[in-house]
Amino acid sequence: MSLFIRPYVLVWVLLILTACQTGTPEPEAEVIGPPSTDIWLFSISPDGIELQVRVTDLEGYDNQPMFSPNGGSLLFSSDRTGKTHTYRYDIESRALTQLTFGDAETFSPTPIPGTNGEQFSVVYADSLVYQGLWRYTLGGSLEPSPIVTVDAVAYYTWIGAEEVLFFRLGTPNSLQLINVATADTRVLAEGSVLSLHPIPGEAASAYIFQDSHDTPQIMRYDWLNRESTMLAPSIEGGKYFCVAPDGRLLMLDGGKLMAFTPGASVDWIELADLGLSGGTRLAVSPDGTLLAVVGERIANE
């Protein structure tokens, strides 16, 4: 049976590995499960940022939200059945639909470019497949299948419809680029990578990168010249961000939503206090009017 590292454990593992490489003493890790997380949906307008709806309200892992291309729904991962599967939340009707089933677990659901939102990719793991990249359809018209022969995928983002930029677990960990038609693969950098995203309106992607010596930075990968350059400093302790349609980088500092405009900002500025505890992942809708945020579970009174 292959070893599968769940995404909510991966960040802790990377922190320990980085500490070992830099000579920092390892923290004493208490053997406890990850905190329960939920997803909240906020509106963004010139008048401010307001909570619209709490998308999930269950003990367990509800995480990794991603908007559909038309902004009408959210894909996300949840372990509410005992296995981590992909779900679709319709924003207008608030209806929830389970999309993946069976013993295999699926993470990081992402619409596949060029499919009009009808197909999505996932990190797929079972007793035989070690974190491969698989294809599903919303209506189940096609059997789930591997997109390309690759394993140890931790995080990823599409580059058009033909390539995937991904963080691969290994010795060492690395940022890699793979062509899904030919399986040709290039190692772009060695180190730890988190939170990969396309940059709207540009032939580029953004990601957080840290090697064994440097502090985390948000990088820009140019699809045309195949080079990465620094885009912005990361907030201390920050692991996740997203890119708004206007080019602003959005990131959480605890429960506060922060923004940074590359080429204009000197430092991160606070946009709003969302009132959440332990905020982590976030996603912005294609039109920039909605924000999905993951935070530690708050029990309803």
Describe the fold and architecture.
There is one protein chain. The protein has one helix spanning 7-22, and strands at residues 37-45, 48-54, 62-67, 73-78, 85-90, 96-98, 105-111, 119-125, 132-137, 145-148, 153-159, 163-168, 174-179, 185-190, 192-198, 204-210, 217-222, 228-233, 241-243, 249-253, 256-260, 269-273, 282-284, 290-296. The protein is mostly beta strands and 301 residues long. It has a domain at 7-206 and 287-296: TolB, C-terminal domain (Neuraminidase, 6 Propeller), CATH 2.120.10.30. Strand 3 and strand 4 form a beta hairpin. Mean pLDDT is 89; it is low at 11-32.
Give the beta-strand count.
24
Q: Quote the distance from N terminus to C terminus.
A: 42 Å
Q: How much helix is in the residues?
A: under 10%
The oligomeric status of these chains comes to single chain
- The strand order across the widest sheet is 2-1-24-23
Give average pLDDT, whole number: 89
Topology order in helix (H) and strand (E) letters:
HEEEEEEEEEEEEEEEEEEEEEEEE
Cα-based radius of gyration, to the nearest Å: 18 Å
Number of helix segments? 1
What does the largest sheet look like? 4 strands, antiparallel
Q: In what range is the share of β-strand residues?
A: over 45%
Name the CATH architecture of the domain at 7-206 and 287-296.
6 Propeller
Structural class: mainly beta
Keyphrases for this structure?
301 residues, mainly beta, Neuraminidase, 4-stranded antiparallel beta sheet, 1 helix
Secondary structure layout plus pairing:
Elements: H1 7-22, E1 37-45, E2 48-54, E3 62-67, E4 73-78, E5 85-90, E6 96-98, E7 105-111, E8 119-125, E9 132-137, E10 145-148, E11 153-159, E12 163-168, E13 174-179, E14 185-190, E15 192-198, E16 204-210, E17 217-222, E18 228-233, E19 241-243, E20 249-253, E21 256-260, E22 269-273, E23 282-284, E24 290-296
Antiparallel strand pairs: 1-2, 1-24, 3-4, 4-5, 5-6, 7-8, 8-9, 9-10, 11-12, 12-13, 13-14, 15-16, 16-17, 17-18, 19-20, 20-21, 21-22, 23-24
